[in-house]
Amino acid sequence: MINITDIFLFSDQPTTCPQCGLRTEIVAEHFDSPAKTQEHRCPSAECAFEFIVEE
Question: What is the C-alpha separation between 49 and 17, in angstroms, rounded?
Fold first, then answer.
């Protein structure tokens, strides 16, 4: 489950997991909202960290 306190900013580089460093996968995009956010998940079964990236 995503913890709403785990919010990061978009970058021009591929998004990586802040806990283990692997490239993340986009779970959902919400570009119709004012915040323009994406939900990301780490593909590592051991980590599986989920967080939000916003513009």
Answer: 7
Beta strands in the chain (DSSP E): 7-9, 25-30, 37-41, 50-54
The two structure tokens encoding residue 33: 């909202």
Q: What is the DSSP letter of 40?
A: E
For residue 42, give the nearest of 30, 55, 24, 27 by alpha carbon.
Answer: 24
**Residue 46: strand, helix, or coil:** coil
Radius of gyration of the chain (CA): 11
pLDDT of residue 2: 61
pLDDT tens, position by position, 17-46: 999 999 999 999 988 878 789 999 999 999
Take residue 21 and report the two structure tokens written for it.
Answer: 């460093």
